[in-house]
Amino acid sequence: MSQNLSSLRQQVRGLQQQFPSLLETLLGREPLLPGSVYTLRRRCGKPTCHCARGEPHASIVLSYRGQGRPQNITPSPEHVSAVQKLTDDYREVRQARTQLLRLQRQVLKLVDGIEALRVQEGERRFQKLRASFPSHSQR
Ligand SMILES: [Zn+2]
């Protein structure tokens, strides 16, 4: 029983160690852009174009889902890395948030387990104490 309890405590302490780095990500100051940058490869359809047989055209596209409808935007080459950084940071924050949620659920479950075991122990102790109570007068 108490072994179980200390195993649960140990698990909580283990999970707790993951919080600082998650919080560091979540409490950051870098601006975030909800969207993602990807490379779009396509053939333009002109039969004489090199892409008809060789490599398709590649362009970098920002899939941006900010206010309003999602849009696909082609950032100018000099802005690609800045846009990439904004969306990478956004993704990182979203992932950290998901992890935080998972972690909190795990901790809560363990903490509830600890509480249940402690209540069991408390009940046992109380039953012992109760046995030594002076008998009540019936009213
Ligand atoms: Zn082409």
Small molecules (ligands, ions, cofactors) in the structure? zinc ion
Whole-angstrom Rg: 29 Å
DSSP strand count:
3
- Identify the strand order in the major beta sheet: 1-2-3
Classify the beta-strand content into a percent band.
Answer: 5-15%
Note the gap between the termini. 39 Å
Q: Any overview of this molecule?
A:
It contains three helices and three strands, in the order H-H-E-E-E-H. By secondary structure, the protein is α+β, with helices and mostly antiparallel strands. The protein has one domain. It has a three-stranded antiparallel sheet. A hairpin with a 6-residue loop joins strand 2 (57-64) and strand 3 (71-73). The longest helix is centred in the C-terminal third of the chain and has 52 residues, at 80-131. The radius of gyration is 29 Å and the shape is rod-shaped. It starts with a helix and ends in an 8-residue tail after the last helix. The mean pLDDT is 92.
Reconstruct the topology from this structure.
Layout (H helix, E strand, L loop, with lengths): L1 H15 L2 H8 L8 E8 L14 E8 L6 E3 L6 H52 L8
Antiparallel strand pairs: 1-2, 2-3
Helix pairs in contact: 1-3, 2-3
The chain binds zinc ion.
Zinc ion binds next to loops.
Quick synopsis:
With 139 residues, the chain is an alpha+beta fold. The chain has one domain. Helices cover 54% and strands 14% of the residues.
